[in-house]
Amino acid sequence: MAGGSVSVCTECLFKVLVIGERGVGKTSFITRYVNMRFKEEYKASIGVDFALKTIEWDNKTVVRLQLWDIAGQERIRNMSRVYYKEAMGAFVVFDTTKMETLEAASQWKHDLDSKVRLASGSPVPAVLLANKCDQTEGNKELSSLMDNYTVKRKDNLNVDEAGAFLMENMLRIDRGLSSRDNENDRINMSQSKATFKCC
């Protein structure tokens, strides 16, 4: 190619964990995010399931997300170190109709931080997802709390935005760029009140 510039395409493969209590909607979230469809029926995951999503991030970067759907049973949590190994990010999911799953999400995040770290020693980026927010609209206290973390997998509300936010943080780490200030670690959705925070 005389006088032309060569465009370098970068391919990134990121292992992303999807963790949270049993029945919070992890598998439904993954199905919506990867396959763009919603399934009403519930089938508990046993052990771990996998899904792959390929995204053309920009004209030079292709991102492949290997999503690990970790079952929420206690016995699985005890074996999680094997599943967490080499993860670059995580979605921590809770069910807005069961507030005890929010407390459990905190425990899942603590478990994540204790079992996997980035090469720098920092925790892997994680996004807290409040699932089934369409079922809590009558609860004002819950609604005000959830303004910052809502995802409606059924209606595809903020599902892609949550994924993009996590990918942006993983790419930043992968490319060795410094992380943003804490106050800038949030994104606001113009169509909704939802905000995601990387933790």
From TrEMBL:
It is a lipid-anchor. It comes from the Eukaryota. One of its GO terms (molecular function) is GTP binding. It is found in: Endomembrane system; Membrane. GO terms for biological process: endosome to lysosome transport; phagosome-lysosome fusion. The keyword Cytoplasm does not apply. Keywords: GTP-binding, Lipoprotein, Membrane, Nucleotide-binding, Prenylation. GO terms for cellular component: late endosome; lysosome; membrane; phagocytic vesicle; trans-Golgi network. PROSITE patterns: RAB (PS51419), RAS (PS51421). SUPFAM superfamilies: P-loop containing nucleoside triphosphate hydrolases. The small GTPases Rab are key regulators in vesicle trafficking. PANTHER family: RAB FAMILY, RAS-RELATED PROTEIN RAB-32 ISOFORM X1. Belongs to the small GTPase superfamily. Rab family. This is Ras-related protein Rab. The lineage of its organism: Eukaryota, Metazoa, Chordata, Craniata, Vertebrata.
